[in-house]
């Protein structure tokens, strides 16, 4: 069974879940980015084709997002082409029901933590994000693979190679997409590439006869990911969002599409209604931290901004995020809107992406107690 046939088969089985004894879900992270999506789909395909008991066990890749947010992932649609419509989103399947029926296993790819009771169903983790307090610990340590490489697809490909998977040109191509995208086509100034990313990339190339020009592949993914045609302020904030919850504060970290800056977004705001509505639709969060990357003549520029409903939160985060321990080297910029609860900065430490910033913010708001903010 090839990759396309597997996705069609998997989606068609959503109405036959009762016929299986076990449903094994490969779950991508909540941002549903290209890396997450390809990692989940390819790994589920691998597990399905190597499973000796396909009648009893169903392997599905599931995106942690609903279909209306997933549709904002223009780069995923570009890379997957006709396979895009067969991707399964979280609103296509009732995981809680499978959990209650005690037939659910979950494999996390591109994240290592679930903020729900489904945590106890996790049987394997393959990820390149930092482990944190509360990360899932599995009884069998060999089922946790966490390594800080540029792309989770590097780890998925490594695993497939080590287990004698019959690599095809198509699967090699799909895995290559996120690797070149996440490493900014192996750009030294982006600082994302590890030796393993290069090694695995070279190994994947041997399955792709026409792979001489991956600059074109990279530029196509970039172009489709940067396409903001028709996106509203809320879409822009929603496209790549991750939630951080402390006991007293909940906030969202949104990464904007490539080359669309925080300054562009703030310039688009006429009132705060759009941001407030975005927050109320996301667990009624207290605020949002927004990051952006723009590459100009191979120079990477980053911006960071935030908005909190309460001025006390703005002040607290402002103090923390500019501190030396966070080390982002932020330079404040003026904004075109008279609003003390919004801040905009150029981030001179361009090596720090959301992957590095998010755990710091997480630690900070975990420690916040009510007396700090009231
Ligand atoms: Mn990733």
UniProtKB/TrEMBL annotation:
Q: Is the keyword DNA damage assigned to this protein? A: no
Q: Which cofactor does it need?
A: Mn(2+)
UniProt cross-references to Pfam families, sorted A to Z: DHH, DHHA2
- Domain annotation DHHA2: ranges: 218-365
Q: Which GO terms describe its cellular component?
A: cytoplasm
Coiled-coil stretches: none
Keywords for the protein's UniProt record, in alphabetical order: Hydrolase, Manganese, Metal-binding
Q: Which Gene3D superfamilies match?
A: DHHA2 domain, inorganic pyrophosphatase (n-terminal core)
Q: Which domain of life is it from?
A: Eukaryota
The molecular function terms of the Gene Ontology recorded here are: exopolyphosphatase activity; metal ion binding
Q: Where is the signal peptide?
A: none
The record's InterPro entries line, in alphabetical order, gives: DDH_dom, DHH_sf, DHHA2, DHHA2_dom_sf
Spell out the family assignment given in the record's similarity comment.
Belongs to the PPase class C family. Prune subfamily.
User: What is the name attached to this protein's record?
Assistant: DHHA2 domain-containing protein
Query: What are the leading ranks of the lineage?
Result: Eukaryota, Metazoa, Spiralia, Gnathifera, Rotifera
């Amino acid at each position: 069974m090839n990759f396309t046939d597997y996705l069609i088969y998997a989606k068609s089985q959503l109405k036959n879940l009762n016929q299986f004894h076990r449903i094994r879900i490969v779950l991508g992270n909540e941002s549903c980015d290209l890396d997450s999506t390809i990692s989940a789909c390819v790994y589920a395909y691998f597990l399905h084709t190597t499973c000796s008991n396909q009648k009893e066990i169903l392997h599905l890749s599931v995106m942690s997002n609903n279909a209306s947010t997933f549709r904002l992932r223009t780069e995923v649609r570009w890379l997957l082409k006709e396979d895009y419509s067969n991707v399964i989103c979280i609103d296509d399947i009732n995981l809680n029901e499978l959990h209650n029926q005690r037939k659910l296993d979950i494999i996390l790819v591109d994240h290592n933590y679930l903020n729900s009771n489904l945590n106890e169903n996790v049987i394997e983790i393959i990820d390149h994000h930092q482990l944190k307090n509360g990360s899932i610990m599995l009884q069998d340590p060999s089922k946790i693979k966490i390594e800080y490489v540029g792309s989770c697809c590097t780890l998925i490909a490594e695993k497939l190679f080590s287990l004698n998977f019959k690599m095809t040109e198509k699967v090699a191509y799909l895995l290559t997409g996120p690797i070149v995208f996440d490493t900014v086509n192996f750009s030294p100034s982006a600082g994302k590439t590890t030796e393993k990313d290069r090694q695995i990339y070279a190994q994947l190339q041997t399955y792709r006869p026409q792979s001489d020009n991956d600059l074109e592949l990279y530029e196509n993914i970039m172009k489709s990911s940067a396409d903001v045609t028709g996106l509203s302020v809320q879409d822009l904030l929603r496209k790549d969002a991750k939630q951080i919850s402390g006991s007293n504060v909940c906030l969202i970290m949104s990464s904007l599409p490539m080359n669309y800056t925080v300054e562009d977004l703030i310039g688009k705001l006429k009132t705060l209604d759009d941001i407030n509505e975005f927050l109320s639709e996301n667990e009624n969060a207290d605020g949002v931290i927004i990051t952006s990357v723009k590459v100009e003549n191979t120079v990477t520029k980053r911006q960071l901004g935030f908005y909190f409903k309460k001025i006390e939160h703005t002040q607290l985060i402002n103090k923390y995020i500019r501190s030396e321990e966070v080390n982002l080297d932020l330079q404040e910029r003026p904004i075109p809107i008279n609003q003390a609860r919004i801040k905009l900065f150029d981030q001179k430490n361009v090596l720090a992406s959301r992957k590095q910033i998010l755990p710091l913010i997480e630690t900070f708001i975990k420690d916040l107690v009510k007396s700090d903010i009231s």
